[in-house]
Amino acid sequence: ETGVTQTPRHLVMGMTNKKSLKCEQHLGHNAMYWYKQSAKKPLELMFVYNFKEQTENNSVPSRFSPECPNSSHLFLHLHTLQPEDSALYLCASSQEQGALHTSNQPQHFGDGTRLSIL
Amino acid sequence: TQLLEQSPQFLSIQEGENLTVYCNSSSVFSSLQWYRQEPGEGPVLLVTVVTGGEVKKLKRLTFQFGDARKDSSLHITAAQPGDTGLYLCAGASGDSWGKFQFGAGTQVVVTP
């Protein structure tokens, strides 16, 4: 139990479907992250939220739309995805000191959602 | 873009043997973290190193941060099957708040 829960664990969807991934953290952290993990590739940071405000959008296509209604919840809305979007999507959270400070804080990851696009 | 290269990509050893995995970059990092990821789970933090030349030990695992803070190594003594997993390094720089650059990982398999 990492304190970060992701649902669903597995998702198969067609390219025309709309679905959402959910992440909830029970650690009282103020920063949350979405990562994409593909086989044999480094984790790709997608989005960063600090105190519910998006501070980073790492050139992610618009077919991925994040939402952070509060510090404990993070969503990733998916629509019109492509086969190359099939991957493990990981959510993480951390307790940060603020925007001006270098981050040395550990990131606590969920177990991910395995997404397959048909 | 700071590129972190991990080597080897894959390592298979017998229980009881020692192993070392490496994380190298041409960039300087303010801190570097090592994670282990097991199948079906997310990465779990093992250690954070912040000082050049720093050595940290976690039971049979020894982590070293290079003097120039550009590289790091993880050494496992007397590996056990429970050490099997994907080992990831992640570096942070002073101008990339909240952004860790991850390596692609080293897959370690320890067979009984």
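qc> The mean pLDDT of chain B is 92.
qc> done
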